[in-house]
Amino acid sequence: MNPQYLQVSCEDGLLRVLINRPEKRNALSQAVLNEIREVFSAHAADQTLIAATITGAGERCFAAGGDLKEFDGLRERAAVERMTLDSSAALDAIRHFPVPVIGFLNGDAIGGGAELAVACDMRVFAAHSKMAFVQGTLGISPAWGGGADLIRIVGGAQALRLLSRADFLDPAAAERLGLADAIAPADRPFADWCEEFLKPIRQRKPQVMRAFKAMVMTARTGDVQAQRAQETAALVETWMHQDHWDAAAAVLARIAGAAK
Fold first, then answer.
1. Are 18 and 55 contacting, i.e. CB atoms less than 8 angstroms apart?
2. β-bridge pairing 14-19 and 6-11
3. Which residues of the chain fall below pLDDT 70?
4. Which of 52, 62, 117, 222 is most buried, judging by how many CB atoms fall within 10 Å of its CB?
């Protein structure tokens, strides 16, 4: 395979995936999500892997969320549901990857980008990065399994607060909630510090890391299918409401105005 939007390397037991759309703030179009699914699915059987990483190009955004210009064209219930299921499957390829996946948040993780981040097993924040579940500002709910992930990590009450307020969490706030597993210092290059974070992990054996991930997956799944079905139904309902169309149109208008 030859991804168009991802840079992928695999050596010394480490799969590295870079979302390479800095001009689009690494927005998650359906094509990007499909490539994520294909890459992680293609490497799942590699018995030499110890871990995988995913990050974004540049310093501004890890992933800015769903590609609003593309997804704004979804106006039929069946198309919205198909997008939700396909995108969830892409993040499931990360959730179910047989070794730990570490999200290196080189910049902001917003909306769908936050869902991508919480699909990872660990999250390392650059000092300037922020995370926000802003779906409510667009009149929708989480779409790709991130709602269930968020509840699992921070608990129901905190998840409701983050979803309702669309708070932008700095690294320290994210760490207090359990969303950040480590924070890179501001005075060191982020990529260099990430390599330091990986050092002890890379000393483990592949079969041991697979065992660790299997233990986590057993505890993680629970009644996830019921949660996912509810999340998909909620997204379709909120997506089809006029409030969502109005909010999306306002954002697109601001983007168009800024581009002039």
1. yes
2. antiparallel
3. 219-224, 226-227, 230
4. 62
